[in-house]
Specification:
25% helix, 23% strand, alpha/beta, TIM Barrel, 3-stranded antiparallel β-sheet
């Protein structure tokens, strides 16, 4: 059995049960039981984390793969995840990791300090908590982020944003950037397809916008017949524009049949193009398509003059038309994000990393 570490976000219900207060699921557990996420459970009368310091694997990726198009473009990021998830999305594209009930999935181990050193040694500008939702390994993610910050390495959370207010404050205080998976814009979808709820995710997005300095972008995976209707996309994009502002980038990505949702077809490229147009018409400045080859939909266009300022072909950058302040080189309009005078040159590489025993 994996070693466990204490956690803080829980309380005792009675002599036999404790309640986890990390996410809105509020799992009530007896001794020896695990929450739905599987990596948090009741041991010795308290909620403990069983995946601290253990990973399902490490890989160096382009930051655009997270996807983050406005956060240190062209740079590399050390990516890793653990096992388990606090949602139950029937369409999960990483189900072999997020739905794993085998702790042997977590074959690689690394302390926070070791991860920070590895990122530095590999010339990565950031570390990403990804593959499964990092909120469930909250304590490990926060400690890794602190160790990285000491080395000048940024931290990125790829998350569904389904987390309670108190741990949310601590979690996002440690993060420099996030991509939040806004799975749909209906409670029905969250309830029936994901086993969660929309309202808390919207609260997280509002919190990120108004209470933190973290840069964030939003991704919606479009599933034919489920969350891709024009009315729903109009509601989603209007909400983002009205509540978060036009500078929050939206990524619309293609679904492929997987796990428990194999009866839906793959998303047509035309659906992504339609969603991008709906977003632009709603006033969103930066709307993208993903999981398809679409140079136009993957590139960044100036909201002032309409000229292309960052060209992307899949995850590789092409022409760059920003000045040293991150403004459009054509009209001087400020381009939102964490941008530098010149882009990185990591390109489309994907480099698996095996950490040797310390």
């Amino acid at each position: 059995m994996a070693a466990s570490v204490p956690t803080r976000f829980w309380h005792r219900i009675d002599n036999e049960r404790v309640q986890c207060d990390l996410c809105p699921r509020h799992c009530r557990l007896r001794e020896g039981q695990r929450g739905l996420c599987y990596v948090r459970g009741c041991e010795e009368g308290e909620v403990r984390l069983f995946s601290y310091g253990r990973s399902s694997g490490f890989c160096v990726d382009p930051i655009e793969k997270k996807p983050l198009n406005h956060f240190l473009p062209g740079t590399s990021v050390l990516s890793f995840g653990t096992a388990g998830c606090n949602l139950a999305c029937k369409f999960c594209q990483n189900w072999d990791i997020s739905k794993s009930r085998e702790m042997d999935t977590l074959a690689d181990a690394a302390s926070p300090e070791r991860l920070a050193r590895t990122a530095t040694d590999l010339n990565c500008r950031s570390v990403a908590f990804t593959y499964n939702d990092p909120v469930i390994f909250h304590e490990y993610a926060v400690d890794v982020a602190a160790a990285c910050r000491e080395q000048g390495i940024r931290s990125v959370a790829v998350t569904a944003g389904w987390i309670c207010p108190e741990p949310r404050r601590e979690f996002f205080a440690a993060m420099d950037a996030a991509n939040v998976d806004l799975k749909a814009f209906s409670e029905r979808f969250y309830r029936d397809i994901c086993g969660g709820s929309l309202s808390e995710v919207l609260d997280t997005l509002l919190y990120l916008k108004h209470e933190t300095e973290a840069w964030f972008e939003i991704t919606t995976l479009l599933i034919p017949g489920e969350n891709d209707s024009t009315p729903e996309l109009e509601r989603l994009t209007r909400w983002v524009t009205d509540e978060l502002g036009p500078d929050v980038p939206l990524h619309f990505t293609a679904f492929h049949p997987d796990w428990k949702l194999r009866d839906r077809p793959s998303t047509p490229a035309s659906t992504l193009t339609r969603a991008r147009r709906i977003a632009l018409d709603a006033g969103i400045h930066y709307a993208y398509t993903g999981n398809v080859h679409d140079t136009k939909g993957g590139s960044t266009w100036c909201p002032g003059c309409g000229k292309r300022v960052i060209e992307r072909d899949w995850y590789a950058l092409g022409s760059w038309n920003l000045d040293h302040r991150g403004n459009c080189g054509n009209c001087g309009c400020a381009i939102a994000g964490v941008l530098e005078a010149a882009p990185g040159n990591f390109g489309r590489q994907r480099i698996p990393v095996k950490l040797e025993s310390a």
